[in-house]
Design a protein that fits this description.
By secondary structure, this protein is of the alpha/beta class. It has 3 domains: 80 residues, no CATH class; 88 residues, Nucleic acid-binding proteins (OB fold (Dihydrolipoamide Acetyltransferase, E2P), Beta Barrel); 265 residues, Purple Acid Phosphatase, chain A, domain 2 (4-Layer Sandwich), CATH 3.60.21. 27% of the residues lie in helices and 22% in strands. The chain is built from 15 helices and 20 strands. The strands form 4 sheets. A 7-stranded mixed β-sheet has the order 3-4-14-15-16-18-17, covered by helices on one side. It has a 6-stranded mixed β-sheet with strand order 13-12-11-10-19-20. Strand 19 and strand 20 form a beta hairpin. Helix 3 crosses helix 5. The longest helix has 19 residues. The protein is globular and about 75 Å long. It starts with a helix and ends in a 16-residue tail after the last strand.
Length: 524
């Protein structure tokens, strides 16, 4: 066991006081030791772990180890260190598995409605910081001289910190002053306007959690480099079976601008003898499945069906025509029958009872992780409708100036870079969230092989660090709001992914008599 512990310590770049090291060496299970080492490194934000440090940070230690499944081992560590705590078991992520069909579903923690208090919001951001801190601590660039902000002395030194951005301003000399905060304190950091990293620093937004290298003291810190949590996939998984996945989003059933003739083309194709259609085993419906009622002022004037029940009845009619050999995964969007605040629960049975009778339909939360399996292989699909993407476009210069509404994959790249689906909670009314003091469910803890989004009504496919990004089209012609802001949708496109080759095709089911290529309604 001794060699395994030493290897783990070296791998994580940790230094342990002898008494603490002896404790870990006493564990019988290497997996338990590994979990506790990971938890302590992430929770304390320090590389040199002593018994004194653990006793001074009892709360952080408890947060780090209380989630371990083996309560006996947790008790063992705290008893040996002379700490006292109340052990609580962490509830596992809700999971739905159908091994025969070859998939697992991991739902977002949507928590039942309750009266919210200030502590729920502060706890949410503490949890979010801790999750992203753990990801950043795995980056080699930050492992040397990593220190918590509260430990920075008055002597100038080269340091690395992990902090959340709480303030950002430009000085009269055009330099940037960025305030970073962690669980121990806060510090002002300076980025000079003529430095090589000014553009990267300028991209930082409020609530971003990043790693920073620089030099200085507790009064002022000069930034040399900035590191986002980022997402990477080292191996591109391919299945042996020659099967396809189709991606559909923003059907908007019930809208006066819904495109039934075009959707009919898709339904006819999916049930046809076309070789590609016969290979389709899964379809992902990625939110805004109906147009809803009362979603925005005066919406009713533009509705074809003016009740949620009728809209879902229409949707169910569509879904019932999809061959039963195909499994359908469906998450909600802000137009569906569930709360707008994210993460969103599955679509309500109260308004959509017909959906619950469709045997090959699986309703999931927004977001949700769907893992498709083939023997020992596993391909992970992260479904997220995408309400928060609008805030990113408004706030990030690269996206604002780069016409990102026409290239949604550019926006998804920033989501992956930040490892968070809604990274800027405070800047837009379009981002409404339910605080969770235990774990921020919008953090991308597990890197997907494929991330699937909707909302922007544009079909787009891209790749970022080995991760496939699929942005979905819509089945609704240009609305009056879209016309006002100059947004042209790209309707009736269906991305088709082959799991054997990983090739992606975009199929066009547009009825030219119903809508033109720019999404303009043509029906008189």
């Amino acid at each position: 066991m001794k060699e395994e512990i030493l290897s783990l310590i070296r791998e994580r770049g940790l230094l342990l006081e002898k008494e603490v090291y002896d404790l870990f060496e006493s564990f019988d299970d290497e997996k338990i030791a590994k979990k506790i080492l990971d938890g302590l490194g992430k929770g304390l934000g320090e590389k040199f772990i002593t018994k004194s440090l653990l006793n001074k940070n009892v709360k952080s230690v408890m947060e780090s180890v209380k989630s371990l499944e083996d309560g006996n081992e947790v008790e063992k560590i705290v008893v040996k260190l002379g700490l006292s705590f109340e052990l609580t078991r962490k509830k596992p992520v809700e999971e739905k598995t159908k091994a025969a069909e070859g998939y697992k579903i991991f739902y977002a923690d949507t928590k039942p409605d309750k009266k919210l208090e200030v502590k729920d919001f502060t706890g949410h951001f503490r949890a979010r910081y801790t999750q992203l801190q753990g990801i950043l601590m795995q980056r080699r660039e930050l492992q040397q001289n990593l220190i918590s902000i509260g430990k920075i002395s008055s002597d100038r030194a080269s340091l690395a910190i992990i902090g959340i951005v709480t303030e950002k301003r430009v000085t009269k000399n055009k330099n940037l002053i960025i305030k970073f905060e962690d669980l121990t304190g806060e510090i002002n950091a300076l980025v000079k306007h003529d430095s090589e990293i000014f553009e990267k620093a300028d991209e930082l937004q409020l609530d971003d959690v990043v790693g920073v290298r620089g030099s200085g003291n507790r009064d002022l810190f000069f930034v040399y480099d900035i590191f986002f949590p980022d997402a990477f996939v080292s191996e591109k998984i391919k299945f042996d079976e020659d099967i396809n996945i189709a991606f559909v989003s923003d059907v908007h059933c019930g809208s006066g601008r819904h495109l039934p003739r075009s959707f009919e083309n898709f339904l006819e194709w999916i049930s046809s003898e076309d070789e590609e259609a016969k290979k389709v085993k899964y379809i992902f419906f990625n939110g805004d499945n109906v147009d809803g009622v009362g979603i925005f002022p005066n919406q009713e004037a533009g509705l074809f069906l003016k009740s949620m029940e009728k809209q879902y009845e229409m949707l169910a009619g569509y879904l019932n025509r999809i061959p039963k050999r195909i499994t359908i995964f469906m998450c909600p969007g802000q137009h569906d029958a569930t709360r707008v605040a994210e993460p969103q629960p599955i679509i309500s049975k109260k308004y959509a009872p017909q959906l619950y009778e469709i045997e090959n339909l699986v309703l999931v939360t927004n977001p949700a992780m769907v893992k498709l399996t083939e023997r020992e292989k596993e391909m992970k699909f992260l479904m997220y409708h995408g309400a928060a993407m609008n805030a990113l476009v408004n706030e990030v210069k690269e996206l604002r100036m780069g016409n990102a509404y026409d290239r949604p994959s550019l926006i998804v790249k920033h989501i992956l870079k930040r490892r968070h689906l809604a990274p800027m909670h405070g800047v837009s009314i379009s981002i409404v969230y339910i605080p969770n003091a235990d774990r921020d469910p919008m953090v991308i803890d597990e890197v997907p092989d494929v991330i699937v989004t909707g909302d922007l009504h544009k079909a787009d496919v891209g790749s970022y660090n080995g991760i496939l990004m699929v942005s979905n089209s819509c089945w609704q012609a240009q609305t009056s709001f879209e016309e006002t802001v100059g947004h042209h949708p790209d309707p009736c496109k269906v991305p088709l992914l082959n799991l054997k080759t990983r090739n992606v095709k975009i199929l066009d089911f547009r009825d030219e008599g119903e809508v033109d290529e720019y999404g303009v309604w043509k029906v008189k």
